[in-house]
């Protein structure tokens, strides 16, 4: 009688039989027979064992996939092309959370005004439309606490901007912004009430600190975006050999911006308009670049900074600012421009966009900030109706 012992070991069957150790022909066929039986038995055992292992691994992979997918979905709500899916939850985000998303477009309102003008609204809306994958942030000094006004605000333009998925409106808290920058010491010593140009000076300082800390693009609130800016580190030439600070962009912690903040404090003179703004940018650029006149529409580059041609943002220079509010026989196409600066400081709010006026500015509103323009028309119609009732 064939005596065979099958000893189970992890993952295998071990055959122990004396026939398998003798060399005669009779016993060899017995050994082969036993091995054949075992080979048919072992796969069934291993298959069941491996099947369970594979199933467990598949379950683990599925769980991991759903877990990771959930995290990625949450992240996607705060960035890129998924801004369109972000609901009311955006109003609970802090400035740091939004700024840390990177590549923000930053606007500042350093007056106490809470109702954005149509030009401010158009600037923010046009940026939100051109840069749909980037957060657009309007900091307002008039907001005195961390709670942003909701979409039901009595301020129409405020509600209009708040309803845009990638637009965020936050209080401008300068002491927080200036932390860990050379500007904090200056801010703690300066007396705003005694400053002649405090609204402009505080804006000049705030934009430097925000771009240095978080990176992105700063724009004045009278800049209408018409196409994306392809540069990451850039200054805008207002004219040959002279830089504006009305629009510029840099990655976070760029040395040039840090040097500008240090020079801001070292050469501070708040009585000279522009000394902390365009003149600061120009003198700092001259320390690292040999500035020359622009020829045609080419840009200049110095070290890792692009000095962009005046046509990029200032195709209509400041002495001719009134042309934005005139009717043109043939409107310019601005093919060489990324955005248009409407020179509101020169305007002093004397001229505004009037619905039906057919001015260049009105056409820009219609094209690049249509929601603001529609609101403008509705307000004009409401005012006309109110006036007509008063006359009656």
TrEMBL record:
Its principal location?
Golgi
Which chain regions cross the lipid bilayer? 61-86
Q: Which GO terms describe its molecular function?
A: acetylglucosaminyltransferase activity
Membrane topology label: Single-pass type II membrane protein
**Swiss-Prot/TrEMBL GO biological process terms:** protein O-linked glycosylation
User: Could you tell me the keywords of this UniProt record?
Assistant: Glycosyltransferase, Golgi apparatus, Membrane, Transferase, Transmembrane, Transmembrane helix
Entry protein name: A4GCT acetylglucosaminyltransferase
Question: What species was this sequence derived from?
Answer: Turnix velox (Little buttonquail)
């Amino acid at each position: 009688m064939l005596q065979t012992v099958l000893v189970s070991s992890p993952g295998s069957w071990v055959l122990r039989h004396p026939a398998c150790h003798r060399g005669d022909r009779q016993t060899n066929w017995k050994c082969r027979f036993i091995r054949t039986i075992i080979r048919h038995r072992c796969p069934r055992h291993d298959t069941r064992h491996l099947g369970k292992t594979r199933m467990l691994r598949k379950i683990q992979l599925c769980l991991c996939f759903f877990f990771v997918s959930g995290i990625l979905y949450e992240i996607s709500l705060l960035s890129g092309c998924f801004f369109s899916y972000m609901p009311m939850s955006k109003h609970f985000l802090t400035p740091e959370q939004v700024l840390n998303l990177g590549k923000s477009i930053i606007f500042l309102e350093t007056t106490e005004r809470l109702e954005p003008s149509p030009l401010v609204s158009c600037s923010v809306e046009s940026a939100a439309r051109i840069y749909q994958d980037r957060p657009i942030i309007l900091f307002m000094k008039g907001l005195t606490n961390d709670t942003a006004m909701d979409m039901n605000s009595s301020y129409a333009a405020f509600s209009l901007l708040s309803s845009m998925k990638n637009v965020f409106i936050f209080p401008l808290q300068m002491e927080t912004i200036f932390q860990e920058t050379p500007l904090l010491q200056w801010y703690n010593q300066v007396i705003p009430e005694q400053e002649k140009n405090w609204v402009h000076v505080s804006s000049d300082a705030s934009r430097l600190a925000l771009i240095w800390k978080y990176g992105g693009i700063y724009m004045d609130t009278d800049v209408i975006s018409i196409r994306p800016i392809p540069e990451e580190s850039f200054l805008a030439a207002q004219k040959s050999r002279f830089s504006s600070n009305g629009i510029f962009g840099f990655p976070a912690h760029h040395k040039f911006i840090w040097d500008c903040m240090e020079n801001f404090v070292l050469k501070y003179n708040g009585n000279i308009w522009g000394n902390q703004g365009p003149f600061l940018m120009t003198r700092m650029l001259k320390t690292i670049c040999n500035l020359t006149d622009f020829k045609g529409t080419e840009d200049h580059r110095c070290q890792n900074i692009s000095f962009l041609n005046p046509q990029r943002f200032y195709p209509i220079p400041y002495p001719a600012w009134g042309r934005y509010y005139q009717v043109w026989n043939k409107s310019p196409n601005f093919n060489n421009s990324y955005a248009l600066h409407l020179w509101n400081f020169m305007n002093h709010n004397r001229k505004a966009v009037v619905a039906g006026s057919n001015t260049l500015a009105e056409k820009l509103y219609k094209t690049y900030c249509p929601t603001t323009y529609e609101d403008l028309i509705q307000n004009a119609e409401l005012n006309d109706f109110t006036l007509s009732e008063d006359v009656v």
